[in-house]
Design a protein that fits this description.
The protein is α/β, with parallel strands linked by helices. The chain contains 14 helices and nine strands.
Length: 307
């Protein structure tokens, strides 16, 4: 990776939200020269990245550019602007969960302009981004992976080179299918424990120690115990978006996903109940409501009412 002599290399971050902002902070602390761009200027100002005014500015000041984007339309726009910025020799890394067709289109467009795009989504929530324990599922050129690897080693605990472009997303679909199903399973299990008269804190402690636990039970179970879902580690609306992408992909390759299919209506109910901006652990509230019980009062709500 190139450098101007002041640090380990030049990295641009486009999309400086929860994930991109955390990555920027870790990279700056590790000695990289980091610039950032986001359509929401306040996000860049709140990050450790040096603000720049456009995608073209990021391209001009970077050797590797990380893309942490929320939608297909955002990727289309950024890919077009990068392609117009004379990015020959640049490595770009698309790190979101988006339809594979959209990533392939961006790859082809950037390749024609001399830019090497990696498909490298990450496993982990905002919590893992904050403590640099993400897992990177990289796919694309080996040369691109090797240039980006020093960055991956800073923002995550492990990274994989999965070969051909698109395999990163395919692996991410497998991972996020489990996230969606296990989050719902954790909510259902806690609801069963409460209905049976068990202390939720005891349930969390005992199940976490046994074979029935999962990463989602360990991460989101405590939120269900306290009925506290804000700030979110990953919003319910985002998990629902990802689950829809996975379901469409599975259908396109002729694979049945009965558990994911059963989970999707519950995520829809969560959106309809106004839970979309909360952590996906808020699915737990649906079970309380379905049992005729009011959702537990959150500690934050109690503290506000007591003022």
């Amino acid at each position: 990776m190139g450098s101007d002599g002041t640090g380990r290399g030049r990295v641009g971050v486009i999309g400086v939200g929860v994930m991109g902002g955390a990555m920027s902070g870790h990279l700056v602390a590790a000695g990289f020269e980091v610039c950032g761009y986001d359509v929401e200027l306040a996000k860049v100002a709140a990050s450790a990245a040096t603000p720049v005014g456009s995608v073209a500015d990021v391209a001009a000041r970077s050797d590797v550019v990380l893309l942490s984007l929320p939608s297909v339309s955002a990727l289309d726009t950024v890919a077009a602007e990068l392609a117009d910025a004379e990015p020959a020799g640049l490595v770009a890394v698309e790190m979101g969960t988006l339809p594979l067709e959209a990533k392939q289109q961006a790859h082809d467009r950037l390749a024609a302009a001399g830019c090497d795009l990696l498909d490298a989504p990450v496993s982990g929530t905002g919590l893992q981004a904050a403590d640099a324990t993400l897992v990177v599922y990289s796919s694309g050129s080996r040369a691109g992976f090797e240039r980006a690897l020093p960055i991956f080693e800073v923002i995550g605990r492990r990274s994989y080179d999965l070969g051909a472009f698109g395999n990163g997303s395919r692996m991410k679909f497998v991972a996020n299918l489990l996230v969606a199903v296990h989050t719902l399973a954790a909510a259902e299990a806690h609801a069963l424990g409460r209905a049976a008269g068990l202390d939720p804190e005891v349930t969390q402690d005992v199940i976490s120690a046994g074979v029935g636990t999962s990463s989602m039970f360990d991460i989101r179970g405590p939120m269900m115990v306290s009925d506290s879902f804000d700030p979110p580690s990953a919003r319910l609306a985002i998990i629902r978006k990802d689950a829809g992408i996975i379901a469409d992909f599975a259908q396109s390759i002729g694979t049945e996903t009965p558990l994911l299919d059963a989970a999707l209506p519950l995520y829809e109910r969560g959106l309809e109940a106004g839970l979309g901006d909360l952590d996906a652990a808020a699915l737990h509230r649906l079970f309380a409501a379905g049992a005729g019980e009011p959702p537990a009062e959150s500690p934050s709500s109690r503290s506000q009412e007591s003022r």
